[in-house]
Amino acid sequence: MMTRLFNKQNVFLFLLIMMVVLARFFPFLESYNRYFNLSGFIDWGIAGIFLLYGLKLNLKEVVKDIANWKLHLLIQSGTFILFPLLALLFYPLVKDSQYTTVWLSVYFMACLPSTVSSSVVMVSIARGNVTSAIFNASVSGLIGIVMTPLLMSFFLIPAEGSGDQGAIIQQLLIKVLLPIVLGILLNPVFKR
After folding, report:
1. pTM, entire model
2. Contact 78, 47 (CB under 8 A)
3. How far is Cα 90 from Cα 186, in angstroms, rounded to an integer?
4. Mean pLDDT, to the nearest integer, of 123-152?
5. CA distance to 17, 49, 86, 121, 159, per residue, from 12 (Å)
6. Cα gap 59→131, rounded to integer Å
7. Is residue 55 within 8 Å of 74, Cβ to Cβ?
8. pLDDT in tens, 21-54
9. Looking at the record's lineage, which domain of life comes first (predicted)?
10. At what angle do helices 165-172 and 130-152 cross, to 10 degrees?
């Protein structure tokens, strides 16, 4: 009974709930940055997670998987065409009503790229193709830099000077793609 209660998934869920409870009682305050640089820690943590994912990948698998363009086209089409269209179907029902803002929020969520961490975690749990998940989520993030503002521009007027897309691309490259590539390259060294 105890071993079933403390398997990997239950421990992760328990720790996740514990963190939410701790955050409730000890919320982050800007003054904490004097003692501990949380944003820097988060950046290193993100890079570390993707380095570990890269270490799990095999270079031959990655090259073979990138050639599966039909799968990638299907995933990206679902993310940036199907989901926004599904949300758009409900626009005539809420147009000029008090629910327009709620619909706009749902539409915004439908226009966002998939998150790398969620995609990879869900595919890992389902024992699916993690290589494809990492590749498509990374590509989705890059495409989303252009597509999300484009899809939202039909309903919102962009604020002046909003969104430094060069900085966003740089962050994606440094925090996600570089650690994955480094992990793939270091894979043969650590497999010995």
Report:
1. 0.63
2. no
3. 48
4. 82
5. 9, 15, 33, 12, 40
6. 10
7. no
8. 998 888 877 777 777 777 778 788 878 887 887 7
9. Bacteria
10. 170
Which two three-digit tokens encode residue 2?
């105890």
CATH of domain 37-191: 1.20.1530.20
CA distances (Å), 117 to each of 63, 72, 132, in order?
A: 21, 17, 13
How far is 62 from 54, CA to CA, in rounded Å?
A: 10
Q: Return the number of other C-beta atoms located less than 10 Å from residue 70's C-beta.
A: 8
CB 132 within 8 A of CB 71: yes
Number of H helices and E strands in the chain, helices first, is: 12, 0
pLDDT given for residue 84 in this prediction = 94
Query: What would the DSSP string read from start to end of 89-123?
Result: TTHHHHTTSTTHHHHHHHHHHHHSPPPHHHHHHHH
